[in-house]
Amino acid sequence: MLDDFNSTTPRRGFLGQVTAAAMGLGMASLIPEAAGATTRPADAALEAWFGKMNGKHRAVFDAPEPNEGFPVIWPKIYILTTEGTYAGEKATPMVILRHHGLPLALQDNLWAKYKLGEQFNIMTANAPATKSPYATITGLPIPGLGVVELLKSGILIGACDVAMTVYSSAAAQKMNMDPAAVKAEWIAGMIPGVQLVPSGVMAVARAQELGAQYIFAG
């Protein structure tokens, strides 16, 4: 049997779940268009979202891990210090949540229902988190931290569709539910304002094509 999610064997667990998701939902749900297929126009809505990254200073924060919330702390620091240093020059950060960083994109009801703290080994008070500790982050001398607060300030946040497929499928398998239905629920349950992107690695690369500097945030 394919491995369930196991934080001690992330590569084997993730690859096993990719295989399971591909078998259960069809590879087309993971890869939008097969290699060698007829070229199709770019997704206009997706390109419009990338186009919002229009400041003179641009950075893409690559977040494959929750990393104690730093992926949704550093972008605010980037804006404050860049715009503070270069007066009148706009800074535009983008955050891409992929792999184990995916649950930061999801609302608290999904954290509770699917035990995302347990699935992704995210702890609060020495127990698996039952809601996102990174939606709004307080207790630091910097305002506006966390996914919800960054979105309010106009910071762009994307979530990987491949990771969405893989991890929702693993949750569905564990709970004996329909993978397609669970994935649809997870997508509907993203924090409002988060953009679903075809894959995290694609989005990180596209942001760099558009002039963003790469920052590893995981």
Structure overview:
The structure is a single chain. This protein is α/β, with parallel strands linked by helices and 218 residues long. The chain has helices at 10-25, 44-50, 74-85, 108-114, 116-119, 147-152, 161-175, 179-188, 200-209, and strands at 57-63, 91-97, 123-124, 127-128, 156-160, 195-197, 213-216. The chain has a domain at 58-65 and 76-86 and 109-218. It has a five-stranded parallel beta sheet with strand order 6-5-2-1-7, with helices on both faces. Strand 3 and strand 4 form a beta hairpin. Helix 7 (161-175) crosses helix 8. The radius of gyration is 17 Å and the shape is globular. The two termini are 30 Å apart. The model is unreliable at 1-11 (pLDDT under 50).
Helix percentage range = 25-40%
Total count of helical runs of at least 4 residues: 9
Note the gap between the termini.
30 Å
DSSP strand tally: 7
Query: How much β-strand is present in the residues?
Result: 5-15%
Widest sheet, order of strands: 6-5-2-1-7
Unreliable spans: 1-11
Spell the H/E element sequence.
HHEHEHHEEHEHHEHE
Tell me, rounded to a whole number, the average pLDDT. 89
Shape designation: globular
Structural class: alpha/beta
What profile does the largest beta sheet have? 5 strands, parallel
Radius of gyration: 17 Å
